[in-house]
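Q: Is it fine to ask for two folds in a single conversation?
A: Yes, each is treated on its own. Send the first.
Q: Here.
A: Result:
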Amino acid sequence: FLLKLSLLLLLALSSASPQDIVKKHSEDRHDLEDRAPEMTDISVNTSAYDNKDNVKWQTWTGSVPDEAVSIWNLYDIRVDYVCKYGCHAGVYNWRFGNFCHYSFDKKEYRTNSFDILVNDKYFEILEWKEGSFGSVPANAVRTCSSDEVYVGKNKYGLGKVRPSDWAFYLPWGGEEYWYWYYEVLTIKRDIDHELIHDVEYKINDAKMIRNPPSTLAVSPISNNGCNPVTKTVTLSKKVADDKWWDIGFLPFSDAPKTFQAKIPNLESGTIVVSNITTIFSFSEVPTDTREFSHSAKVQVSIPPNSYCTVKMLAYKYNVNIPFTASLVRFFKKGYKSVPISGTFKGIMVGEVSAVVERCAHLSSAQLCP
């Protein structure tokens, strides 16, 4: 009997319209600022939940960030912003002052010390997906790490979804209302491929540091004769240049990644960008390590019965060049392109030279007549 009664009650509530469940009419919403008490005595975890993504919680500083996450509230004909206090997701709207309105323990509260949700550089694609009875779709936006609470909404506005309670909670008119049907904010993650291209270097802002020389090759030459001789010595060596593109905090997915750019090189200590576009795959940081042949030629005058040593010296440069680029994320349906920036960094050979060290007498040489 109790089981049948519970099932009947469940069916009755689930078939009720939102207007039937919500106890207050929309006309009660105009005085939210007067009715919602400020938060002073409820203990919650106030540490922001950092999921190391571009969708993140940012401390409120008195104005709405350009990249704040918002919804168009058709019910009240206004733009609402996603905010939170502790783990409690709520709503910010300038009509009610600089407060985040949220619900807790059957009441609505407001606070001027809160976080607002931002989508940095509008990098991520955000989607509202349907949920019910506490269900939460994959890649939902969570409010904090210490409690399982997610950003939710229904036709009346923004609030929080708590799976353990099987419900979505809405702050409204000084009270907390709950619903079984709602939508949850999610980050689109079905990425097939990522591409960085359209790389533009700011050569005028480049910084270079010339390091002390290092020896690449050594060639000893000798003259066992009794007359001076002149020889031409050519030294050559392959040396690897290390180059990478530091994009900083940019979070990549696990999808395949491709980098497409023209690559800077050094010629006689001067930055020269290749005319050829290079395309390669990468996993975390775009990196290019290739060997280049360097050579140096010098004429050496060797005294009789002497030997000389010729060295090829290389001057390596630490090079930093700011750049801008486009990151394109290809999804199963559609794509999104966003501007990014970073720094090209390289440790490259910029100059080589041949140096003749002081010649010395051959101890084994025979005396000249």
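Q: Second one now.
A: Result:
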Amino acid sequence: GVGKTTMAAATGLASANEGTSTLVVSTDPAHSLSDTLEFDVPSRPARVREDSPLWAVEIDPDDALSQAGMFGQDGGFAGGLEELLGGAGGGDGAMMPGADEAAAVQLLLEYMDDDRFDRVVVDTAPTGHTLRLLELPEVLDSMVGRMMQLRDRFGGMMDGLSGMFGQGDGDEEQAGFGDLDAVEERVERLRDVLTDPTRTDFRVVLVPEEMSVLEAQRLTDRLDEFGVPVGTVVVNRVMEPLADAADVPGDAFVAPNHEDCEFCARRWDVQQAALADAQELFREYDVARVPLLADEVRGERPLRVVAACLN
């Protein structure tokens, strides 16, 4: 609720307007990217406009899972091992922990490998979901390691049992373990991408309120633990004139009146305290301020204004 989708859309639009082929990916289940871009964003990458190299996609969890092989809900190989691995499945059709995040990771890696796109802008889910996504390499690494141990310890025995009971030569099981090798490779690739400052720039978005500043601080601390590079902290919905934040004609937009509006003045006092905290806590990052606009940020014109504030 702090404006991550708006910032992602504005960033993608500015990137495309500079001539860089850009894909904006929404991993947020709320999927408000379509509303922000005023374009019906599908579950496969689609070009937003023919005269601009801007693409967009909203990852559908069910669709992603159906493409993710071993992470699906069909009771396949991974589902059969879940009990052995100590999983907390919820019965028939239950997914392994982190399955939806794992499916999203697979698609993100595919988009990064797609020659159509030079830049991928990810509109993340709320903080908790994002941290779970970032923790996924460690979770999967542990899970794959345990599965590999099972293969090494019991692989020969399972082949013997399969032959004894006439259930084939274990090809299905070997195919499943082959999936594990692929998962482990994707885990390492994701880790490399996320921690490479030449490829990844994580931008934290907050609003000028104490609780939002504290949550952003927790997020930046966790990102630092993961080794994920944070370049910019964006403070959104600041009650200041637009001309103070960007080189745009301020008289074209309504600005808060701190002189005659008591409500505006009191909110501004609250925001100034939070802004001071943010400037101190995030002094090692670039801090961008985006003013609160009177109208909803939907469509290209207001997104261009937001992009100007983000430089």
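Q: Anything structural to flag on that second result?
A: Two points. The domain at 195-311 is CATH 3.40.50.300 (Rossmann fold). Confidence is low (pLDDT under 50) at residues 70-95.
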